[in-house]
Recover the amino acids of this structure.
């Protein structure tokens, strides 16, 4: 492939780089005898780095995305191998991230997300926000550091970029206040239920918001979860406890307390979908049942779109109530599935749930082997979570709204 043929960008798995640009003679290459990699070109070296993250899809996808952008930019736009990039080149790349140009080469049409094999695929869906720009540089710095440690590169040009002083971690702001969360619930409850399709949509919306909020789950955990992951065991008081087993970040398993309230919602959702009220331990039905093809788990993007649809619908519903609700509607338009995870954690903390309980429920810190024997601590965590952290679907309903009290 000639340099002229590199006018269009391609995913790295199908990219063929000419010898003059593949880095075999890069000016920043380390001595071959000192390299701990079998890679002899930049693309293979990047693939070797990425292989360290192959078992964690989200991390792998994010790291590949940033490495791919830099590699393609160096080869296609700058006409240099990755292993020849200098400090000055990376300053230009920082500016490029703010607004990738020419857009026809780098940005997908209409900001759409296309499969990597689709000819409409591009490395960017639009300019990166400041937080995404910083994250890109952090990931690339880690890649360069690894390549230096492996002996593939002599030095890390990324390390010369001026870094802002590290700030203390800000408080979580991407969550819904209690009053705004109540608006979301009210919106879901007023959804029409006249037809089978409307009833199915209402059931999914109610189940999704309940599951994300009460369990504080990540979108990948919901997308990949199965009904058979619900189980019950006897607590210290001899009564049944319900739990949900989930596979979290870094393939770490955890169990999250399940309240009677969630079990009731589970029964209702399953019954609406023609299933037995409670799942069996080996059941492979997805946690969120597709409208078509029941045994196929929804993708993370499908779950994301479903939650965004609820928030968008709630925002339109609020705007229809008048200008006084515009700010609330704007906040909901920004919200995503991950906001529900933050909302769950924030509301638990505000409700007095012990921070160690929240930590274990959300899976922020893995438990050590000793915790396998701490059943009394599990009992306390279960009781505290299900007693203090509630969905309260009927909280906004007045006494006059109760069935049988119609005027």
């Amino acid at each position: 492939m000639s340099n002229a043929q590199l006018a269009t960008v391609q995913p790295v798995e199908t990219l063929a780089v000419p010898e003059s640009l593949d880095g075999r003679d890069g000016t920043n290459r380390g001595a071959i005898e000192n390299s701990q990699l079998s890679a002899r070109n930049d693309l293979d070296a990047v693939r070797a780095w990425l292989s360290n993250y192959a078992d964690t899809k989200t991390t792998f996808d994010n790291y590949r995305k940033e490495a791919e952008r830099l590699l393609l930019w160096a080869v296609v736009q700058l006409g240099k191998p990755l292993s020849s990039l200098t400090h000055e080149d990376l300053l230009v790349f920082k500016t490029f991230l703010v607004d990738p140009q020419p857009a026809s080469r780098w940005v997908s049409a209409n900001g759409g997300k296309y499969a990597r094999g689709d000819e409409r695929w591009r490395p960017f869906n639009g300019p990166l926000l400041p937080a995404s720009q910083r994250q890109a540089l952090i990931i690339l710095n880690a890649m360069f550091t690894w390549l230096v440690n492996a002996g593939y590169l002599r030095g890390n040009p990324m390390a010369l970029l001026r870094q802002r002083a590290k700030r203390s971690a800000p408080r979580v702001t991407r969550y819904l206040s209690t009053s705004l969360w109540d608006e979301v619930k009210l919106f879901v409850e007023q959804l029409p239920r006249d037809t089978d399709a409307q009833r199915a949509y209402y059931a999914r919306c109610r189940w999704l918001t309940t599951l994300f909020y009460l369990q504080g789950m990540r979108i990948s955990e919901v997308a990949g979860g199965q009904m058979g992951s619900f189980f019950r065991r006897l607590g210290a008081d001899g009564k049944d406890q319900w739990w949900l087993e989930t596979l979290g970040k870094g393939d770490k398993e955890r169990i999250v307390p399940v309240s009677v309230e969630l079990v009731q919602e589970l029964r209702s959702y399953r019954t609406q979908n023609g299933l037995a009220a409670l799942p069996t331990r080996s059941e492979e039905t997805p946690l969120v049942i597709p409208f078509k093809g029941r045994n196929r788990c929804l993708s993370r993007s499908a779950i994301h779109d479903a939650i965004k649809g609820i928030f968008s619908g709630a925002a339109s519903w609020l705007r229809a109530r008048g200008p006084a609700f515009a700010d609330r509607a704007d906040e909901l338009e920004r919200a995503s599935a991950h906001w529900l995870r933050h909302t769950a954690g924030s509301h638990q903390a505000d409700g007095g749930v012990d921070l160690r309980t929240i930590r274990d429920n959300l899976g922020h810190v893995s438990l050590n082997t000793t915790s396998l024997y701490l059943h009394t601590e599990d009992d306390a965590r279960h009781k505290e979570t299900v007693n203090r952290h509630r969905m309260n679907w009927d909280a906004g309903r007045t006494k006059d709204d109760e069935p049988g009290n119609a005027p």
In short: Confidence is low (pLDDT under 50) at residues 1-7, 366-376.
